[in-house]
Amino acid sequence: MIVIYTDGSAKGNGNKNAVGGYGVIVYQGLDSDHLKIVDAYQEQEIGTTNNRMEIKAILWAMKNYGQPDNFFPPIVYSDSMYCVNSFTNWINSWRSNGWRKSGKKDIEIENKDLIMEYDSLLRKGYSIDLQYVKGHNETIGNELADGLATGALTVQEVLNGQF
């Protein structure tokens, strides 16, 4: 069983100099009571938004752990309702509307490039079980992913248990 927590952040959200980042924590185990951290990833970016960083974290999880040959797709937790809704509720209607907002044929969806990348991976057989987790609620995986996203933690600190 693989369980992944993702998170994104952006200080100065949306400004051209906004400092953004995303973090990913990967657990593996026989069941949900016996999970251990086996991987972690973080990346920083300038001039971005929180939503883009949230999506990029999910894309990283999909590309690295949602391969088509996986019998059981990983459970991926995000504290972004925007992302969970985008990828579980809205993506099919957006695709059929030409990547435009429903009922607003002249307004393209935000983060279209990343959402189309996710859709492309789905069409190639990649899959994850994307679930919502309440953020900043003392869920350790979510807190660690947040620490990586904001730069408060490093991958080495997480993998060495120094948190």
End-to-end Cα distance, whole Å, is: 24 Å
| Overall morphology | globular
Task: Report the count of strand segments.
Answer: 5
Largest sheet: 5 strands, mixed
Strand content: 25-35%
- Low-confidence regions: none
Structural class: alpha/beta
Tell me what you see in this structure.
- With 163 residues, the chain is of the alpha/beta class.
- It has helices at residues 50-65, 81-96, 112-123, 140-150, 155-159; strands at residues 2-11, 19-29, 35-46, 75-78, 129-132.
- It has a 5-stranded mixed beta sheet with strand order 3-2-1-4-5, with helices on both faces.
- Strand 1 (2-11) and strand 2 (19-29) form a beta hairpin.
- Helix 1 (50-65) runs parallel beside helix 3 and helix 2 packs across helix 3 (112-123).
Task: Tell me briefly what this model is.
The protein has 5 helices and 5 strands; from the N terminus they run E-E-E-H-E-H-H-E-H-H. With 163 residues, the chain is an alpha/beta fold.
What descriptors fit this protein?
single chain, 163 residues, alpha/beta, 5-stranded mixed beta sheet, globular
Outline the fold blueprint.
Layout: E1 2-11, E2 19-29, E3 35-46, H1 50-65, E4 75-78, H2 81-96, H3 112-123, E5 129-132, H4 140-150, H5 155-159
Parallel strand pairs: 1-4, 4-5
Antiparallel strand pairs: 1-2, 2-3
Helix pairs in contact: 1-3, 2-3
